[in-house]
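INPUT
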Amino acid sequence: MIEIKNLVAEIEGKRILDGLNLTIHDGEVAAIMGPNGSGKSTLSYIIAGKEDYEILDGEVLLDGENVLEMEPSERAAAGVFLAFQYPLEIPGVATMTFLKAALNAQRRAREETELTTPEFMKAVQDAAGKLEIPRDMLKRALNVGFSGGEKKRMEILQMALLEPRFCILDETDSGLDIDALRVVSEGVNALRAPNRSFLVITHYQRLLQYIVPDTVHVMANGKIMRSGGKELAEELEANGYADYKAQEAA
Amino acid sequence: MAEIAMMKTQAETALADLFARSKSLLPGDARSREDAFHRFAVKGLPHRRVEEWKYTDLRALMREVAPLAAKPDAAAIEAALAVESVFAAAEPATIAFVNGHLAKADAMPDGVAAVSLAQALAEGHPLLSKLGAVSDAEGNAAYALNAAFMTDGVVLHVTKRVEGRVALRFVTTGASAVSTATRVLVVVEEDAAISLLETHESANGLAHQPNDVVEFVVGDRAEVAHVRLNAESDAALALSTVTAHLGAQAAFGSRNIVAGSGLSRHQVWMTFAGADTKGAVRGATMLGGSQHADTTLVVNHLATGCESRELFKTAIDGRATGVFQGRINVAPQAQKTDGKMMSAAVLLSEEGTMMNKPELEIFADDVQCAHGATCGELDDDLLFYLMARGLPRPEAEALLIESFLGEAVEEDLDDAIVGEALMGIVEAWLKKRG
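OUTPUT
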């Protein structure tokens, strides 16, 4: 279970999160929707451990443990995974080398035995096949020269390999055409499991037609303004975010 | 008018004494050695007011002069060479030098004739007329000192496309610090090709003072792949020079990896004398503590249609200092020159320093020349991305540094075994860094 309690954060004196509360149960897919600048991406970065933010209050509990007190790599080993909105290009680091380093670093941190090369190769190739990732892409430098869709598929490949407890998808639909959106969504859906939770951040309802959420939360001005079921996404698509912006201003 | 004589430093006086004591014992023509020492002595040790030594003030940094190393005995040679070479997996035909003297030589592959420099000097070998083919180096202090003191080395005459690799291994050992001066002349005839690996190691942590020169004279359509590794002790003061005189339609590549020495200065003069030749000089330098490493490069385009590529990467930790000075000169007749030079440094600590000085001097009008220099820290966003995937910070840093240096180490190196050996050096440095 993930419990975000009264999270308050600033960047350079500007309040981005303002007492955010959210609980995501095991196996639940929670979607956060909200207008630009509502703090959605900030929330994902703060949970993953980016240093740029000052956290003034609150906690993020993963199975009762506050991940905010951990290093980013410790959070990853504990099961937090952020699929980046803009996955970074790392020239000179072969994708395979990176995947193996990441997987084995997490296994070491959890005091598990590292995978042998044949075990690792099999795991990667199985996951890559499902995501329609060609083998030669795995030999290239990580994300370098990859299209937007390829980068997002690579994020989901990493998610599949690392088997996290809690996956955050930060606008995974941005920059994807319909075919890529379908492949990526199928990849995510295949990872849905009773002991795995998802936080899907998006502007648009479209992604949620592919990855159907259990709960939908509207975020504006740094907090959750309203929560509901998947029908809330459809309502937002019809009415926009004006109500929530107005509600805050009032 | 009275001339103002510069005061000689202790090291300059010691060098003069050392030369006076040694010159009659060194092989070959004493006169040319005296001329060379004179070229050094009139200017003395270069200092920061000499432009090409601005960032490496040898006068200030070279306080003492170690005695010239004597020829080691059999036991010392055996001990020095007992450690496996970095390039052992590449199974090169190796010529080994201990304390600057020829110690052991494998049979050379077909197409390579090797004669020790001491013997060549004593006999007046005809190929020695090719020494100094790149005349710009002549007045340089390190080059002139090497010409005055050169004790041994090898003359390699390459007459065919050579299968396999040739290695030159230089090991310095002994109970106290010594200086060495070795000279290698590699004459590659037309259409011939060679892959040459060169390593410099100190078997102990003493402040040795090696001064090495390798001169390449590359014929038309000939190919050279040269990899040099400086793995001297962190107390060593290492001066090294590579000159390359390139014929037409040739391909030359020289790569220098700096993984040792307290103070090192690597100088390269690459001259394109024939048309349509490709030349590449690369380097990766890893520094920590109070190390200082200088790479100084002069590329002379004298012929039409040549391509030069220079790529240098420097990783600087601790209070270390990196220096890159690179100049591309394009003569009026060298039309259609294509030159690119890049130096990039990553600073891994608050106290590291990098000095970059790229220069272009172009007298032809139909050329493409570019240079760039960068200096910065590791990218925080990249680090976060790697850490968010589970890599602890030191591992994430190591991966980024390895990829940063890897470009200069492995780019265009068509030799996977050598590439792996060199990346092993990088990994060992990263491990030591912790």
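end of record. Chain B has a mean pLDDT of 95.
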